[in-house]
Amino acid sequence: MQKMGENGAAKYNQRPTFTPMEVSVELSHGNQLQGLGKCYDDDGRLKRSGTFWTASAHIVTAVIGSGVLSLAWAIAQLGWVAGPVVMLLFSFVTYYTSTLLADCYRSGDPDTGKRNYNYMDAVHAYLGGLKVKLCGCIQYANLFGVAVGYTIAASISMMAIRRSNCFHEKGHKNPCHTSSNPYMIMFGVVEIFLSQIPDFDQIWWLSIVAAVMSFTYSSIGLALGIVQAIDNKGFKGSLTGISIGVISPTQKIWRSLQAFGDIAFAYSFSLVLIEIQDTIKSPPPSEAKVMKKASLLSIIVTTLFYMLCGCMGYAAFGDKAPGNLLTGFGFYNPYWLLDIANAAIVVHLVGAYQVFSQPLFAFIEKWALKTWPDATFISKEIAVPLTPTKRYKLSLFRLVWRSAFVVLTTVISMLLPFFNDVVGLLGALGFWPLTVYFPVEMYIVQKRIPRWSTRWVCLQMLSSACLVITVAAVIGSVAGIVTDLKVYRPFKTSY
């Protein structure tokens, strides 16, 4: 059954599969497959071409997302002491567990062991049983949720461009209300087209563009925060964050918990780490070594940006830091620079949507092909000429299913357009199970760490502490969403 599933995935990816034995036999006869060994990896798939830099671009695209824009608000809830400390702790935990997860890409030998093509394959290889289904449900539900969150964030940035120009023309006192629905639909239409890119390793160029855009808007947010702090002639904020009195004690608790979720979401990339690692070319060096270096560089760079953007945003606005630094209109001028920053956010989210959605696309299509291998609608591809020498293989199933997926995420986004609360909930739900629990459990099995040994106890303590944080962040984010729903009218509320 497993072999059938892998062959189905290969067929879907237009990657003809040969076993290493078949390749060696054909080469020994000197037939038409002469030289095939140079074109295929040890698992019989087309050679992967990913490098340290492309892996880093994928990670940066996944990590430096819209979450960076909520960090000033998150630090405002926690204060100058707890805010940066929590951010550093999340970065350390994310990097450490990503190194554990990177070692799980191959079962056994890190250079020649059996490849695990995705997160679920790795869990199946090391843990098996019910945990595989549990992992799949959590991972793919989170990927779906991220697609919803990114649709919301993109529409907010597009609205911000419209409102920024309106404020410039009519003054800051004009409400300049606008609906997010048309912008979500525009974003969805673009994603319908891009979702037809067949495979994860074919979107490397989109990840590089998105990574450049993420640095662009993060840098603009940082620069505006510095300028605002200079204008204020000092840093705003306090050691403990927004004080009780300005908000109620209950609100202080809920907001602080939600801030944990926002920071967790800002470091969320473990759910696509194995898929990114599967794009890296074969050893030497091993894919795990390349992935660990890419993770280290990416997390150092993103943490530096996060600290600067979050802290400078808090320094500029103090307790009044907006939920979204570039769209909450803490800044009004220069309006054209805000427009550039928000346009960069939209372009970045276009790419990030695909980085998170492609693993889900691949899973559903692999499952469908395995379940109905003789269905023409699922397996048939139509060659569409793009140029005199290039053809695009159009799959009707891929066209229909992926388009339906984008439409569904768009409709849900229109129903729940709450940026901060949705971001916090997504970050909380995915952090412990995907970033901590499964990597720790697989590492314990892989290294055969004895139960109740010092290392085993330390790993379990780390996992337990992160579980407590996750539960608290979920409670805070749900409370925020409930509060928003009291005054929200679906498809009618404008900003």
Number of domains: 2
The radius of gyration is 23 Å
Biggest sheet strand order reads: 1-2
- Counting DSSP H or I runs of 4 or more residues, the number of helices is 16
Coarse structural class: mainly alpha
CATH class assignment of the largest domain: Mainly Alpha
What general form does the structure show? globular
| Main β-sheet description | 2 strands, antiparallel
* Fraction of residues in H or I helices: 55-70%
CATH topology of the largest domain: Amino acid/polyamine transporter I
Give the overall pLDDT as a whole number. Answer: 79
N-to-C CA distance:
51 Å
Explain this structure:
The model is unreliable at 1-36 (pLDDT under 50). Helix 6 (130-170) crosses helix 7 (181-194) and helix 8 runs antiparallel to helix 12 (335-371). The chain folds into 2 domains: 1-47, no CATH class; 52-485, Amino acid/polyamine transporter I. The radius of gyration is 23 Å and the shape is globular. The longest helix is centred in the N-terminal third of the chain and has 41 residues, at 130-170. It has helices spanning 2-12, 20-28, 52-63, 71-102, 119-126, 130-170, 181-194, 204-232, 249-266, 273-277, 287-317, 335-371, 376-379, 396-415, 419-447, 454-485; strands at 106-107, 114-115, 381-385, 391-395. The protein has 495 residues and is an all-alpha fold. The protein starts with a helix and ends in a 10-residue tail after the last helix. It has a two-stranded antiparallel sheet. Strands 3-4 form a two-stranded antiparallel sheet. The chain crosses the membrane at residues 52-71, 78-97, 140-161, 203-227, 296-315, 335-356, 399-419, 425-445, 457-482. Keywords: Amino-acid transport, Cell membrane, Membrane, Symport, Transmembrane, Transmembrane helix, Transport. It comes from Musa acuminata subsp. malaccensis (Wild banana). This is (wild Malaysian banana) hypothetical protein. Its main location: membrane.
